[in-house]
Each structure stands twice: as C-alpha cells, then as structure tokens.
Design goal:
With 326 residues, this protein is of the alpha+beta class. 16% of the residues lie in helices and 39% in strands.
C-alpha cells in the first residue's frame, strides 16, 4: 500500500508545492513597494497640491529675478551752463548750404580732449582754412591751419585739436575761417560746445550749422550794380543780439568806406532792407561782407592779411562777390 501511495500522491504534492511558489511570487510582484500614509483614493489630491506648490515657488523666483532692484541716485557736480540750441535757431526757408559746414561737433556737444572737427568747406576761391578752439574767456586752446586745393568742389576736412582746461568744464568756441589767395576772409562760422576735463564725449548732430545765416534777394552773386547806391534785401538768422554789420571791401580786402550797422530786432529771423552808398571811379570788383560779432569772444581777426583792419571776435562772416560801377 505504501508503495502505491507514494506512486500516486507524491507527484501531486510536488505539483501543488510548485503552484504555491508561483502564486507567492505573483503576489510579491503586484504588491506596492511601501505602505502609504494617506487614505485610499487621496493620493491624486496629494500630487495635485504638490504640483501647485512647486509652480508657485517657481513663479516667485522668476519674479524676483526680473524685478530690478533700486540703485542709488547720482548727483553730478556743478558744471558751467551748457550751450543751448538757441545758438543756432531754426533757419527760415531759402538758406543754402554754408561755405563752411560744421558737420561735427554740433552745438552743445560735450567733448573731452581732443576735439575732433569734421568740416565741409566750399573750396572755390578759398585756399586756406584756419580752425581754432577758444575757451570761454577767449584764450586760444589749440588751432590748425590747412591748405585747400583750388577747385570748384567742396573739400572735406578733419582735424584733431588737443586741449587742456583748468576747470571741470567750460564753454568752448570752435571757430573756422577761410581765406582766398589774397588773404581776404571769405567765410567764418562758429559753434559753441561744452569742454570737459574728464568723462565721455557726447556729440550732437550739426543742426543748422551746415547752412548759411544769410539769404539775399538782392544783390545776386557776381551781379553788377551802378548808380552809387547798393540795395541789400534779404533775411538773416542772428547768432546773438549783437548788431549786424554790412560793409563793402575791394578785391584786396580794403574798405570802400561803405558801412551799415543794423540793430537786431527779431532773434529768429532778421529782415535786411537797407542801402550802402559807395563811390568808385570805374568798374570795381568788390565783396559785400555781412558779419556779426561774438558776445564774449575778443580774439582779433584781420579782414585781409595785407590790411590793418581788425575784427574783434566775429561769430559769423558771409561774403558775396559783386561788381560796382560808378
């Protein structure tokens, strides 16, 4: 009987044992790795709340990163009054490009040494250009004399003028003069800037410094006038409140004793309507000169190299060639 029991039941016992081990392995693999402290069904709520907390923290960190922090204000030390655009009021229609065009620096530019001047000069009948930089008290800070090729086109000039000032800053006066082969002044233009002993240059655009301040209706350029009286009509954009001076010079720069002084009555656009009596013995080439003085600059400028007539600190000079008949 024992041998029969073993033969019948032993294989069945082994099979049941194997099935029990397999079921135990399945149970272990399906079980969670650890017990959860939350009630059943609450786990999705925990995940949602955690995600909201993470998002809120990230948003707060981003806002802190992009919100600028306050910086202490800087109060600059006192500086001299900066030249304003009133030095170059708006030109009325009809003004042509100037015989001297100061392309840079523009009015009220703030400049550290060296001053870099970029100019366009109408070179017809001009042979020399003199560029000078003056301090606010009229002392010469630096200058440059350039020869201009004799041609009918414009000449582009670039100069560097190193300077030293005693104060932190002061007003500087850039003056450009051209002369013909006889040494007669053909044009003069002035721009005021602010000179700095240190810092960074801030260059303003040229504004109206590239245009003439005079637009004449009569006399026309290279026209001929007779009768002993020259009529002058047109408009002028004042540089300041100093009187406007009209004068006739001969071809060598000598005065023909014909001068007219006009008071400035309109700071924006001064009407010119006057006459200049003159006396000549025959046809005479002459220059009609229109000029205005600088209200602070006192440096001497000779109208012609061969003459002793001196201008005191001109701010602007315009010349026009004409022929005078008796």
């Amino acid at each position: 009987m024992r041998g029969r029991f073993d033969a019948v039941w032993l294989p069945r016992i082994i099979l049941l044992a194997a099935l029990a081990g397999s079921l135990a392995g399945c149970a272990l693999s399906d079980a969670s790795p650890g017990a959860t402290p939350y009630p059943a069904g609450y786990l999705p709520t925990v995940i949602y709340l955690t995600a909201r907390a993470i998002h809120a923290t990230s948003a707060a960190q981003t806002a802190a990163a992009v919100t600028p922090t306050s910086t202490p204000t800087f109060t600059p030390s006192p500086l001299p009054p900066t030249p304003t655009a009133s030095d170059t009021p708006t030109s009325p229609p009809g003004m042509s490009l100037g015989a001297i065009q100061v392309n840079s620096p523009g009015p009220a530019s703030r400049i550290i040494s060296p001053l870099e001047a970029r100019l366009t000069v109408v070179s017809w009948k001009n042979t020399r250009a003199y560029i000078a930089l003056y301090g606010e008290d009229g002392r010469l800070l630096g200058d440059e004399l350039l020869n201009i090729p004799n041609s009918s086109s414009a000449e582009y000039l670039f100069v560097k003028i190193p300077f030293e000032i005693r104060a932190v800053a002061e007003v500087g006066i850039l003056q450009v003069t051209t002369r013909n082969s006889m040494g007669v002044v053909m044009a003069l233009n002035t721009v005021r800037v602010l000179l700095l002993s240190s810092g960074v240059s801030q260059i303003n655009p040229p504004g109206n410094t590239i245009y003439e301040r005079v637009a004449l209706e009569t006399p026309a350029y290279e026209s001929t006038n007779s009768g002993g009286v020259l009529a002058v009509r047109g408009v002028y954009v004042p540089f300041n409140s100093q009187p406007l001076i009209l004068e006739l010079l001969d071809f060598n720069g000598k005065s023909l004793n014909a001068t007219r002084v006009l008071a400035i009555t309109d700071p924006d656009s001064q009407v010119i309507n006057t006459t200049l009596p003159y006396k000549v013995d025959g046809p005479t080439q002459a220059y009609l000169v229109i000029r205005q003085q600088d209200d602070t600059l006192k440096n001497p400028v000779y109208l012609a190299n061969q003459q002793n007539e001196v201008l005191t600190g001109p701010a602007y000079i315009y010349t026009q060639l004409i022929t005078l008949d008796p």
